[in-house]
Amino acid sequence: MDQIRVAEVPWDEANQVNLLVSEAFGYSPPHSYFDDFPVWSSRNVLRLGGYSGNELVSHVGIQFRNIKTAPAKTPVALIGAVATKESARGRGYGSALLRNALEKIDQAGCSWSFLWGSEHEFYSRFGFHLSGLQARARIADLFINNTGGDRIYDRFTDTENGTKNKVFSGYVKEILDEFLMRRTGIEFLAEDGAWLHRQTTVQWKHIENPFSFIGYERGLDLKGIVHEFGGNSSGIKSLLFHLLQENPEAQIIGSPEQLIDIGFSRGSWESEGLCLARPKDSSISWNQEFWISGLGAV
After folding, report:
1. What is the pLDDT of residues 168-201, one digit of tens each?
2. Best exposed site among 64, 114, 180, 246 by fewest CB in 10 Å?
3. Residue 184 — φ and ψ, nearest 5°?
4. Does 169 share its domain with 102?
């Protein structure tokens, strides 16, 4: 077993984290992990590094946030950018860092810790279990008449009150405004606009009247998937219809309630786990009102 040194990685050395995590996840230059997840390059991240001598060989990142369940807020920790250099795997670095991270999270008074990863057996040893519910649906199913199966695309056009509503691409500040007004999910703050602006691997689309938006894809993950949407429900439908012209197989993820609000019929989606979650106190039950969107699921 190596002598493992755990230390905080200062913000001005975050690029070392980017190089480490990008290599671990198979990114090819010039594309990097921070391109897809710029939130982990921000100053409000606690970065814990595992060092072999002076070399950074492992990393775990922590964000301290709130999750909203109107009208309440619950302090939570989001764990991400978890990676170990291939040559250092199997030598205890990941376990040491995760134990250290959970100690800091518990000391901070967070009721829950959330993370995303495929190594369920590994994380279960630290109290994480698959929790919550996410709905995944084919966008085309939104435009199918449930009674006869006839396509009803012609009912949804890029018009509002008889005026053509142009679809714009790219991030705009009104998208942050929609995030700030969300009643449920990870609480976004005004300062989150800085990294949202750098979220260039998401294809943002919006219409202006009434303002509505969708966020589609994100680099190596969420391929072909709308994972963010907000604004007027008819505007969201128009944007989804517009997207279908580009990709007829596009999908959307959200909570069941969110999909119902924009017109999906109950049962028209596949259900899947939302995240790996660990309560600070094992007596705490999962809150069915918890929801975490694609950009919250880091």
Report:
1. 999 999 999 999 999 999 999 999 999 999 999 9
2. 246
3. -135, 165
4. no
- Low-confidence spans in the chain with pLDDT less than 50: 146-156, 158-163
pTM for the predicted model, two decimal places: 0.91
How many domains does the chain divide into? 2
- How many angstroms separate the Cα of 197 from the Cα of each of 174, 190, 239? 11, 12, 20
Residue 107 carries which DSSP code? H
In a shared domain, residues 128 and 225: no
What are the DSSP calls for 12-53, one per residue?
GGHHHHHHHHHHHTT--TT--HHHH-GGGGSTT-EEEEEEET
83 located within any domain: yes
Q: Residue 124 has what DSSP assignment?
A: H
Distance CA(110)–CA(124), nearest Å, equals 19
- Separation between Cα atoms, residue 269 and residue 205, nearest integer Å: 23
Looking at the structure, do residues 107 and 143 belong to the same domain, yes or no?
A: no
The whole-number pLDDT of residue 295 equals: 87
Task: Provide CB contacts within 8 A for 220, sequence distance 6+.
Answer: 25, 26, 27, 36
